[in-house]
């Protein structure tokens, strides 16, 4: 396998789900159904795990489930004992044809999410600077303008499918602006990012896997082109900042440095639009399912920042990441040998009774809850300010312009969540007003 393929398929040596062959179809379909059911509604599984002593091993996840708030915090506070090397281990193994396509990409190694120690600090520093409070403030006028323009595009129609028409578009345009992408390159880059997510986390047939791999490789080469141009023509954008941090000086970067830079730029793009799109979708969904909460925001828009935090707590856009024990350790009274894999469930920690009263109730008037929706410790999300700003401005504009917004008839109980614990969001969100 090439370095490019290996860097994409983080931890490929696991029990991955794939398109079943005739000889094992019954087993694969049953396993896929069980995993899909857990991913679409993980909260009953989380609640059972929190009630149990110690940790429980979840076969569908092929990992120990860390479900209680205090235990999740402990793991995140001990990065030397719990490595991030397999933080995003995929659910699906690409086919040989897809691997062949991935081999044509730009080689890279681990990204900030899957790095530890000094390497993680080196990769994280430009993320933190590039998404600082000051940088986000400069983006607020652009975010506000794009929110208004996108809503203008459907406001007169009386109905919209919000995920496709808005939630999946705004964050892509914003992160593209931050990186310094030309507007005409953003739709293709966002599409390729979604295809990369499908390749990692959904069972596609071999032809579609190969097509998704081609889309991903095209994205790598697009980002490589931007990196090359910014080395000779630097600009005031995150792409230039990343080049200066990861490939300093005037010397030609090594293949390894070039690969790290491209992997980092691709990761910023994917994380920047997929996570925020998910949070926009779930925030609107839960506000409209709890009509009193929506009406409260319409009457009291000063509560919107609290509503953003409650939406993130109640249904975290990233339900958790994986960790690997670097040595024999004990956690919550459970002994874990070195190499044990854990799924550290932010979504479960945020519903822990030890965190807040009535944790299964959606309440936008909550204050002071230190939820873990954006992680904790050295791997906390560096883009949290940017995500919060986009969701806040979205809710401010929707409550002001479309106070009668509601789920389309027949959809109140029909909205289904995408079967993934990464970027949890509605598959479709049809709305009317």
UniProtKB/TrEMBL annotation:
GO terms for molecular function: heme binding; iron ion binding; monooxygenase activity; oxidoreductase activity, acting on paired donors, with incorporation or reduction of molecular oxygen. The keyword Iron applies. PROSITE patterns: CYTOCHROME_P450 (PS00086). It comes from the Bacteria. Keywords: Heme, Iron, Metal-binding, Monooxygenase, Oxidoreductase. The keyword Repressor does not apply. Pfam families: p450. Gene3D superfamilies: Cytochrome P450 (1.10.630.10). InterPro entries: Cyt_P450, Cyt_P450_B, Cyt_P450_CS, Cyt_P450_sf. Belongs to the cytochrome P450 family. This is Cytochrome P450. It comes from Nocardiopsis mwathae.
């Amino acid at each position: 396998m090439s370095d490019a393929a290996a860097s994409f398929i983080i931890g490929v040596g696991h029990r991955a789900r794939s398109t079943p062959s005739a000889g094992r179809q019954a087993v694969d379909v049953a396993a896929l159904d069980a995993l899909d059911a857990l991913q679409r509604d993980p909260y009953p599984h989380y609640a059972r795990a929190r009630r149990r002593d110690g940790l429980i091993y979840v076969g569908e996840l092929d990992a120990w489930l860390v479900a209680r708030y205090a235990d999740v915090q402990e793991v995140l506070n001990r990065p030397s004992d719990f490595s991030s090397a397999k933080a995003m281990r995929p659910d699906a193994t690409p086919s040989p044809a897809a691997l062949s396509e991935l081999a044509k990409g730009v080689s890279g190694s681990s990204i900030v999410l899957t790095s530890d120690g000094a390497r993680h600090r080196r990769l994280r520093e430009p993320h933190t600077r590039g998404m600082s409070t000051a940088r986000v403030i400069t983006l607020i006028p652009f975010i506000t303008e794009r929110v208004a323009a996108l809503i203008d595009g459907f406001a007169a129609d009386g109905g919209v499918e919000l995920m496709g028409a808005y939630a999946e578009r705004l964050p892509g345009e914003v992160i593209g602006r931050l990186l310094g992408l030309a507007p005409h390159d953003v739709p293709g880059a966002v599409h390729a990012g979604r295809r990369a997510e499908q390749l990692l986390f959904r069972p596609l047939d071999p032809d579609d896997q190969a097509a998704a791999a081609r889309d991903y490789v095209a994205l790598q080469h697009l980002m490589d082109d931007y990196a090359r141009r910014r080395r000779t023509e630097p600009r005031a954008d995150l792409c230039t900042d990343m080049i200066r941090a990861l490939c300093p000086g005037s010397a030609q970067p090594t293949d390894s440095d070039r690969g790290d830079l491209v992997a980092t730029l691709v990761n910023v793009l994917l994380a920047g639009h997929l996570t925020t799109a998910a949070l926009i979708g779930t925030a609107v969904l839960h506000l409209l399912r709890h009509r009193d909460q929506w009406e409260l925001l319409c009457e009291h828009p000063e509560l919107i920042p609290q509503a953003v935090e409650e939406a993130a707590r109640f249904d975290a856009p990233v339900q958790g990441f994986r960790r690997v024990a670097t040595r024999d350790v004990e956690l919550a009274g459970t002994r874990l040998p070195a190499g044990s894999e854990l799924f550290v469930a932010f979504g479960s920690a945020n519903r822990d009774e030890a965190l807040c009263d009535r944790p299964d109730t959606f309440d936008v008037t909550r204050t002071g809850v230190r939820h873990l929706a954006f992680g904790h410790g050295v791997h906390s999300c560096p883009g949290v300010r940017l995500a919060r700003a986009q969701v806040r401005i979205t809710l401010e504009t929707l409550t002001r312009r479309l106070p009668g917004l509601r789920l389309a008839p027949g959809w109140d109980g029909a909205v289904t969540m995408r079967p993934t614990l990464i970027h949890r969001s509605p598959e479709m969100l049809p709305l009317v007003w």
